[in-house]
Amino acid sequence: MKHTLVILTLLFITYGCKKNDSNEVKNKELPRIAIAGLAIESSTFSPALTHEEAFHARVGEDVFSYYPFLSPDSLNRKRAEWIPTIKGHALPGGTVTREAYESLVTKTLDMLKKNTPYDGLFFDIHGAMSVVGLDDPEGDFMIRIREVIGKKTIISTSMDLHGNVSKRLAQNTDLITCYRLAPHEDALESKKRTVDNLLDRIESGKGKPKYKAWIPIPILLPGEMTSTRIEPGRSLYAKVAPATFKKGVIDAGIWIGYAWADEPRNHAVVMVTGDDKNIVTNTAESLANSFWDVRSEFEFVAPTTTFKECIERAITSDKHPFMISDMGDNPTAGGAGDVTWTLAKILARPEFKSSNGPSLIYASIPGPSFVEKAIKIGVDGTIEASAGADIDNRFSPPVKLLGTIEAIEYGDKHAEIEVVVKVGSVHVIVTKKRKPYHKEIDFTRLGLNPRKTDIVVVKIGYLVPELYSMRADWLMALTPGGVDQDLNRLGYKRINRPMFPLDKNMNRPNLEAQLISSSNTIIIE
Ligand SMILES: [Zn+2]
Q1: How far is ligand 1, taken at its centre, from the CA of residue 184, in Å?
Q2: Could you report the per-residue pLDDT of 460-496, keeping only the tens digit for each?
Q3: Main-chain phi, psi angles of 155, to 5 degrees
Q4: Could you tell me the pTM of the whole model?
Q5: What is the CA(59)–ligand 1 centre distance, in A?
Q6: How far, rounded to the nearest angstrom, does the alpha carbon of residue 476 sit from its chain's CA centroid?
Q7: Contact at 8 Å (CB) between 523 and 171?
Q8: Ligand 1 centre and the CA of 406: distance in Å?
Q9: Which of 97, 104, 141, 468 could form an S-S bond across to 463 if both were Cys, CB 3.0 to 4.6 Å?
Q10: Residues whose CB is less than 8 angstroms from the CB of residue 53 and which lie 6 or more positions away in sequence, other chains included
Q11: How far apart are CA 66 and CA 163, in angstroms?
Q12: Closest CA to 214 of 414, 520, 512
């Protein structure tokens, strides 16, 4: 009992002393970890360009708001002295301008310079950013970060499984992981794991992993074929977590890669980090072979066909709402979002010419000048103006809409202003800026009722959960655009060949693990 009291007293004194120390002294005991990153997936097959404001960059303390696991009272927040710099996250879109990229990178580097040295860096990226005139932007960004923070700092990189892992990204990072679910319901869990791994390696003194196995896999598939909700994606990705439980493995990931950019880095990758050479190597090879073995089993998550067949089946179906994904210009995958091809095809059909034809909602088409004109006319007024094809007019010109204005709504974060115009039996949503329609409330706040509508056509890929649960039937349409799901139509020039499924009869590739040199050594090109 006496001993216990003495120990308790000592503990109290120690704890009390620590508490009374100045922050400076306290912080010296904690590892110093910086946070930085830019996230976007951008299509090089779209004429759209992405500018700096699209990243909605958060700076300094505001960066924490992305990460609930780093909230002020969280355990992880207390385990380090955090130095957040800049974190930007943009809706998928077209290629990022060089000016936007340079500006965001320079600002990040300037902030990093002010607080060196760092024990760690939490690098939070998507991995499918395309920048005008620059290959592998994330790899470039990381090298420039290394030039500021040096080679000693442990970098832990968090990625989307639709990102690309170039060899130089693999070399210059130390820890790396990606999501294991698509749709990405585990995004935050994955980012937390990135941070947990970093803290564990710093606190335990184990430091950088001894081995990083990297295997490029010559497979390039669209996200709409690789959902982990269905086979073979489900079983393939189910192998990842158990692989990381092996002694000697820190983390493992399977990257599907991004299909709508045309660079040598666009392909699938497996990467495993750890301290046991054999286990790290074998684990990576086992995952890579598992992926290769099921490559031919990937199919679109819903029946997929031409738009003509989709709309004809929807018109004759007795299941409503009949949903059609207008996939080729899906703004959530990187399409410009203003391709008018599908809408023009709908409006040209005789079934929708009169107001008592089958009801159809089209979501959506950007048309800033249309919106301006609609505001001047007002709700219930008749409007005749064009919308769409400001950015991507390769497949169809601006579409003329003659109809009644049913609603004008202000304040949406993405669309800013939304107008509903009824043309024949079609309710067309025209927006000031492009916006993906994912939720029921996106429709109901405009006075539309998708549940009571015969046909709902959405610029989207696979249906997000709310639309999925609402659908009576669903088809995915192979429409043209910057994120055309028919990869054969894209005309790649720079990806590695042969590539599955573009080169159907290719031989089995070499899937041996490549051990990537440590970030302590040279920075490769
Ligand atoms: Zn993704």
Answers
A1: 7
A2: 988 888 999 999 999 999 999 999 999 999 999 999 9
A3: -100, 130
A4: 0.86
A5: 24
A6: 20
A7: yes
A8: 35
A9: 468
A10: none
A11: 19
A12: 512
**Does 23 have pLDDT greater than 50?**
no
CB neighbour class for 214 (10 Å; exposed up to 12, middle 13-18, buried from 19): buried
Which of 484, 424, 492, 416 minimizes the C-alpha distance to 454? 424
40 Cα distance to chain centroid: 6
Please write the tens of the pLDDT for every residue from 32-48: 999 999 999 999 998 99
Cα 161 from Cα 287, distance rounded (Å)? 14
Residue 12 has pLDDT above 70, yes or no: no
Exposure string for 450-462, b = 16+ CB within 10 A, e = fewer:
beebbbbbbbbbb
Cα 130 from Cα 150, distance rounded (Å): 26
On the question of pLDDT at 238 being above 80, the answer is yes
DSSP classification of residue 508 = P
How far does residue 520's CA lie from ligand 1's centre (Å)?
30
Least confident range from 14-23, 42-51, 142-151, 353-362: namely 14-23
420 C-alpha to center of ligand 1: Å?
A: 30
Confidence of residue 28 (pLDDT cuts 50, 70, 90): low
Residue 397 CA to ligand 1 center (angstroms) comes to 30
Task: Report how far ligand 1's centroid is from the alpha carbon of 160 (Å).
Answer: 5
User: Which tokens is 505 given?
Assistant: 């009869």
* Cα 159 to middle of ligand 1, angstroms: 9
**Chain mean position to CA 525:** 26
- Cα(267) to ligand 1 centroid in Å equals 14
